[in-house]
Task: structure prediction
Amino acid sequence: MSDGAEPSPDTPPETREERREAAATRRRWVTLAEVVAVAGLLIGALTLWLSWSDKRAEQAEKIAEQRAAARERGRVDLSASVEDGGRVLALKDERHELSEARIVFPRTLGIPAQRPAGDPQIDADWFAGALLAATDKGDDSRSGRLPVLVTVRYFDGDTPRVATDTYDVVWRTEGRLLRGRVLKLDGLRLRQRGGDQATLDAAWARLAP
Result:
């Protein structure tokens, strides 16, 4: 008979419930790992999309700014200097050299469209007779605005362009001793961008003396 100590009793085997709980715990850990992995993928994809979206927005903004700058460079803003004692308005644009101009008048005045030779300008002689006749009654000193349609040709860099806008010619009449009245031009003002014969005639119907 052996004199050694009795061996300790074995650990009791796991119960079925304990095995189920252990398996469930392992599944939870696997599921959590999958969720973390998927979340990481989603975060990475979202970060990539946001970066791409920001770059696209920046590109769109840059393109819009370039187009706006191009429109600004290409736009004509006519101004006029009074010359020859108020008989002529010399047309100019600060950003472009004008090569040609065509001036159209309200239809009821019966004045044909004018294409000045040489530098673009508006000459009072073109419509002085019509305006003096329209203002023949009343005071010798009168003032008003005559809407005209101005089409100019010019270069935007190396690109030829054409612009048509509606302007008001600012005028006044003065009486002269023994020589009747005279028409003087005082300036040019933009009425609206664009325009056509119909809008010109409608404007003159409101402004006619």
The longest strand covers residues 159-176.
